[in-house]
Amino acid sequence: MSVSATARITAVADGRGGTALPVLESDGPLAVRRTRSPDPAYARATVVGAMSAPLGGDRLAIEVRAEDCARVTVDSVAATVALPGAGPDAGPASYDVRLRVGEGAELRWLPEQLVSACGSELDMTTRAELAGTARLVLREEQILGRHGERTGRLSTHLTVRRAGRPLLDQQLAYGPGAPGGWDGAAVLGGHRAVGQLLVVDPAYDDGLPAPRLIGPTAVLTPLAGPAVLVTAIAADARLLRTVLDEALETLQNGSKGVC
């Protein structure tokens, strides 16, 4: 039996230089917990998988709002594993991430990897709406198949709008039914870990980093707006995380908003 669930997180400035989390709403397999942040200026919420999901036919969503001047990190305890449905008619699962960041606010969206298990079908969408002075750090990582198995079908669609204008619109697809060549030498070249890091920062209005390679299989690309996109592939999840962490460290010196 398929599951429909939506978890919600809202972060607000507490008026004392910190951030409160007045809304932590869990639903179905998406359990949300307040956790300790290593940086006292940021609140932190962690998503805990309460059951195996997404399975074929599931409809999952998570909504995160960082209101004006709030600073919040949202992460997860473990990887999300997309699994086949219980029957041949289950259909694909969907996972919808909706992010909204207000004026002078910052959201760090840093979940663990998404694993596309053999036989699974998942459509994932991530939509971010940012105010003009908002800051966003977003990491996405996809692992195409568990150890020793083929990947399932995975499609992702990331859209980001800043001050009402498009900043990024990107679609990717892997596995059975994806456009030909997705696993060829010109795309993945045998790698099975794919990831990206997006940093949107008003500080980049004064100048963007130059495009450059980061190691042999990652690239930093400035966008047409105050944002930088790092795209990487790797042989496994550990190597992918290392590349993205190193890239994030070099990009951490941006502004903290207007508040």
Automatic annotation (TrEMBL):
The keyword Cytoplasm applies. Pfam families: UreD. Its main location: cytoplasm. Keywords: Chaperone, Cytoplasm, Nickel insertion. Required for maturation of urease via the functional incorporation of the urease nickel metallocenter. UreD, UreF and UreG form a complex that acts as a GTP-hydrolysis-dependent molecular chaperone, activating the urease apoprotein by helping to assemble the nickel containing metallocenter of UreC. The UreE protein probably delivers the nickel. Belongs to the UreD family. This is Urease accessory protein UreD. It comes from Streptomyces mutomycini.
